[in-house]
Amino acid sequence: MDQAKKEVILRVAKEIVGSKLVVFSKSTCGFCREAKEILTDMLGMNASAMRVVELDLIDNGSDIQQVLRMMTGIATVPNIFIGGKSVGGCSELKELKGKGVLHRLLCEASLQPLKPGDKIPNVQVQVLRSSKDGKLVAEQVESLKLFEGKTSVLFGVPAAYSPSCSERHLPSYIQHFDELKSKGVDQVFCISVNDAFVMKAWASSHDMDKRISFIADGNGELIEKMGLAQDSRKAGMGMRSRRFACIVRDGVVEYM
Asked: Where does the Thioredoxin domain lie (predicted)?
């Protein structure tokens, strides 16, 4: 393989890995236009996260298209990648949308949040609850099992111990816990992209009185699959949870 082809392959790989959503397109292609319109409509305010590479407007566009064909078996455009994985072209995109799969893929790529009617993703998390003797105990569980058969309030915070989370956000749920219970809520969870040790220390610093349970999503997998991750690297905090709240009934989001 000559050096020129290696450089093209490297460029394509960088585009795919470096963007949560990349569309290899041609500016004059009607199918490309349709695919971009579908994605723009679904992404809404996150539409700027879509990376579009117009192959007919760059010098080595034909070489890139050949590499894409070698990688995916698709000879035409558009050629769409979500979360580093090929999802096909325009017809495949429309099929995925019709089946509801496209929404899930965009959620998992943190490009679109869960909406009412969506099921909570199932990943391994650590939950901290008060035991009978009042001590906080960490348990590794599948996230979906936490919500089965119950009505739950789940709220997310960007960081344990941050001033706004500690002084206002968490205390407001502690204050209104009895009111939520009176309206049929069985349990209240606070989730953050922090490890279980940090969450345990933070919970212990507040008067929980067995009211609120804490989910330590240390790797951010649940938050990412819910489409609620935010990039806080500029603040030196890595990937974090957005501030959000939702009502979950038997594992299904009822209100977001």
From this structure: 114-256
